[in-house]
Amino acid sequence: MLVQKQLILTESKLFLREPAAVFFATVLPATLLLVLGGSIPGFRDADPSMGGERVIDTQLPGMMVLLSVVTLALSTLPSALVAYREKGVLRRMSTTPVRPSALLVAQIVINAVVAVLSTALTLSLGHIVLGVPIPRQLAAFAGVFLLGSVAMFAVGLCLAAVSPNSRVVQGAGAAVMFPLLFLGGMWLPRELMPSALRVVSDITPTGAFGQALRDTMAGHAPALSHLAILLGWTLVAGFAATRMFRWE
């Protein structure tokens, strides 16, 4: 346990030495929320297409939370693990008392903590500066955030499992991340999607995650179908990552 804590501390220091990772995972979502929410007047007006909600009530903050988690899960986490494997770090660790799985745990813990801090920062600044409501179903929001984050990290571990080197994992991460963000409602709210596209969105981890976040922020219970989708992605992607992951 002591070794695991020391490894987490060491990896945390290394994470903080990567300005790009810190910026895109923590600073960018909060900044986008403040800039877009403060500069586009229409975002502060009730939108009939969204059931009378304002964009800054649930859509914009929900998407910024989604952006932070997806960036960590599909870019930061798999890139770090593949780089360690490519450099032989994981192979060398297997010959020491510290098992490679300890490094995997440390990376997951660090990225999960960063996701929580980024979410807290985004929602807090949004509430203070723009009057964005705190999630009305806070406990349900926390549960959805946990389940959605686990599902996205499982997908990220699959990327790390099948990517042979850093160049491939970066390209694959981008190729997966941006379509998933679109289907999650990042650039086009799900209410405005054609019905066929919304069906596709519903079965993706980001579509289910983003809508469940928005529902709990608006004070509604998340749809059971979205929770089931997230659980399914967690189990399938987690199983696949476990079977395919290579330490060297």
Automatic annotation (TrEMBL):
Presence of the UniProt keyword Endoplasmic reticulum in the record: no
**Which species is the source of this protein?**
Microtetraspora glauca
Q: Which PROSITE patterns match?
A: ABC_TM2 (PS51012)
- Provide the transmembrane region boundaries: 21-43, 63-84, 104-132, 138-162, 169-188, 223-242
Annotated InterPro entries: ABC-2_transporter (IPR052902), ABC2_TM (IPR013525), ABC2_TM_bact-type (IPR047817), ABC_2_transport (IPR000412)
Keyword field: Antibiotic resistance, Cell membrane, Membrane, Transmembrane, Transmembrane helix, Transport
Designated name of the protein: Transport permease protein
The entry's localization annotation reads: Cell membrane; Membrane
How does the protein associate with the membrane?
Multi-pass membrane protein
Q: Kindly give the PANTHER family that the UniProt entry links to this protein.
A: DOXORUBICIN RESISTANCE ABC TRANSPORTER PERMEASE PROTEIN DRRC-RELATED, TRANSPORT PERMEASE PROTEIN
Its primary localisation, in coarse terms, equals membrane
The family assignment reads: Belongs to the ABC-2 integral membrane protein family.
- Where does the ABC transmembrane type-2 domain start and stop, copy by copy? 20-248
Q: Does the keyword Oxidoreductase apply?
A: no
